[in-house]
Amino acid sequence: MIPIIVNGTPRSVDATPDTPLLWVLRDNLGLTGTKFGCGMAQCGACTVHLNGAPVRACMTPVSAAAGQKITTIEGAQGKAVKALQDAWVKLDVPQCGYCQAGQIMSAAALLAGNPQPTDADIDTALDGNLCRCATYQRIRAAVHQAARTMRG
Amino acid sequence: MLIAAAADNWKVDTNTLVTLDGMVLHRPSGRKASYGQLAEKAATMPQPAEVALKSPQDFKYIGKQFKRTDSKAKSNGSAQFASDVRLPGQLTALLARPSVFGARLRRVQTERAKAVPGVRAVVEVPQGVAVIATDFWSAKKGRDALQIEWDESGGARVSTTEQRDQYLALLNQPGKVARSEGDAAQALAQAAKKLEATFEFPYLAHAPMEPLSCVVQLKDSGCEIWAGSQSQTSDQATAAQILGIKPEQVKIHTLLAGGSFGRRANPASDYIAEAVSVAKATRDLSAPIHLMWTREDDIRGGYYRPMFVHAISAGLDAQGNPVAWNQRLVGQSIAAGTAFEGGLVKDGIDMTSVEGASNLAYAIPNLHVELHSPKLGVPVLWWRSVGHTHTAFSTEIFIDELAAAAGKDPYAFRRTLIQHPRLNGVLELAATKAGWGTPLAPKSGVRRGRGIAVHESFNSFVAEVAEVSVKPDGSFSVDRVICAVDCGIAVNPDQVRAQMEGGIGFGLSAALHSAITLKAGRVEQSNFHDYPLLRISEMPRVEVHIVPSQAAPTGVGEPGVPPLAPAVANALFAATGKRLRKLPFETSELRSA
């Protein structure tokens, strides 16, 4: 059994230590908002926060997260996440929607450290998050919108 | 007829009745009845010879900005895709598929796979060997532990390099005639100036962000399926056939699809058939089966946009007017051998192979288009905008080449030769909004260029102007794309814009990055590191302009894609003087001398 803290709740999961955190979240804990896209940290669909920093859950063995704080899209809270989700809805960013939880988790990490990002900052922070529908233009606009909301 | 039914019921004149929010109203008396209440009687009323449609100024919904209903669920992780289905007792299955398309299982050793903790069963199915486990990771480890020998003797041991040579050789042989007007051969022979060029297109995988996924639960009464299905009719029939039951005993729960671009609308219902076959072979487990694909399964799983080569030769008269156009295309038929063959293949010509070429939009008096449809064991399928993915590229680059050879402006040249007013309408709108004819602002250290392309597909008309910046090493960025679309009445304009933005990104992704190649039947790519997709840093600024129209609404999902790659190629020519006629683009050709 491996102890992890998911969205503020201590959990104990029955998984082999090499199991990627992604599959522990999805299959052991039923938290399916974190998505599988590639399995090799190429697409960002599985982005979660580990102690507040964005990581790719598909390449993070659960043993590396033992005893640590994991935040998934289901538990993501705070001003930045709220502002981002509102902006995503306001600008109708999603198309198929599969990648968007990962996009928002990466964008939340960006805004946590940079309240006024430029297009280039956004491109750098989100370059690891693929969107096959290519909603990128609206993602950029929505991150700017969320940053404006946060600055008041 | 609903109004007629209400008028008859209430003994009032039809012109005193109006419809509103699903009801027929008689305002003078306040009486009202829902369409549902009236439907049965309405079906018996005489059909009117002419029906007056609502006047556009009375539209309540059409043309207005309405929000998507799913944005919130797709932004907070609660949206349910097929991958997210969790039924009680559900098991996860991964399938080991043949090493090359069409290979058969010779023998498999399953002991090591069965020894992986969590693995519940290993079964042979017609499509391969399935490992069934309590969860994805156990199933994956189990599949990795299988030791399989495939019999490749009947398989498609295709190598793309040889296939390319064969295709290029076919360009020199007469094919089946898709269209012939006038006498292109003679007109070409007599032309004052002749041009010819060859264009190449790779196999492409759809690569939706959500790998294919399907849950099947067998019941005494039949079978239930959960999938992001795009073609329920064939999926239902396929499942019924495998199980030996009636189609009506197969219930499909259609969930959100994490992208498709054509992949989940497969006449072969491949991933549905796999999941149903695994469920059938594991009936004794009495568990719902969740068949999942990995990204490697997806990239290597076939059903690609077919590889194509085109050759075009054309002639100009002394005044620079095109007088002959001769095009030959080589590529596998998508429809052949499917239920769509009867509808899409006429006299040996698969319409999806030549669409956009056989109906060339330019007024050229002598036009000849031929097709070769070689048969190969690599499964092919429609991919967002289908045949237009390649025909728009070759025709829109070659028309640019003719303009250059005639010493004419590429926009003005097109404008003169296009007769369809709606096609010219988008061409003009895109050119105007892009400031066609005005110089691009120079940027230090790069060569800049602007290119235009216009194409009709899915009954919609789209023109795109691309602006590029090319560095000395040949790498380049697409800075801005101006798009004009005429899709008839734009029912939800913001979603029309979204589809154009996405189509432009999708087209650019393929133009910059994508190619599936095979060697001795094995697909050489496997995941996003070697089959890269467009990233946010590569996304141009996109401006979409919608032509106001009262024409019937037409497609917007696909028509944004075709003009993008040729517009970019034409912009690269404007910037560098080099013509790129092969996809994906090889930037080394754009290096400064």
Structural class of chain A: alpha+beta
Query: DSSP strand (E) fraction of chain A?
Result: 5-15%
Under CATH, the homologous superfamily of the largest domain in chain B reads Aldehyde oxidase/xanthine dehydrogenase, molybdopterin binding domain
Strand order of the largest sheet of chain B: 6-7-4-14-11-12-13
User: What's the gyration radius of chain A in Å?
Assistant: 15 Å
CATH topology of the largest domain in chain A: DNA polymerase, domain 1
Helix content of chain A: 25-40%
The number of domains of chain A is 2
How are helices and strands ordered from N to C of chain A? EEHEEEHHHH
| Gap between N and C termini of chain A | 45 Å
Strand content of chain B: 25-35%
What structural class should be given to the helix and strand makeup of chain B? alpha+beta
Task: From the 3D structure, determine the CATH topology of the largest domain in chain B.
Answer: Aldehyde Oxidoreductase, domain 4
Care to describe what's here?
The complex is a heterodimer of chains A (152) and B (593). Chain A folds into two domains: 2-71, Beta-grasp domain (Ubiquitin-like (UB roll), Roll); 79-151, [2Fe-2S]-binding domain (DNA polymerase, domain 1, Orthogonal Bundle). Chain A has five helices and five strands, in the order ββαβββαααα. Chain A has helices spanning 21-28, 79-90, 100-113, 119-126, 136-151; strands spanning 2-6, 9-13, 47-50, 53-56, 69-71. Chain A has a five-stranded mixed sheet, with helices on both faces. In chain A, α2 (79-90) crosses α3 (100-113). The longest helix of chain A is centred in the last third of the chain and has 16 residues, at 136-151. Chain B is α+β, with helices and mostly antiparallel strands and 593 residues long. Chain B has three domains: 2-52, no CATH class; 80-155 and 212-292, Aldehyde oxidase/xanthine dehydrogenase, molybdopterin binding domain (Aldehyde Oxidoreductase, domain 4); 162-203 and 305-590, Aldehyde Oxidoreductase, domain 4, CATH 3.30.365.10. Chain B contains 16 helices and 25 strands. In chain B, a hairpin with a 4-residue loop joins β2 (23-26) and β3 (31-34). The termini of chain B are far apart. The interface between A and B is large, with 57 and 58 residues.
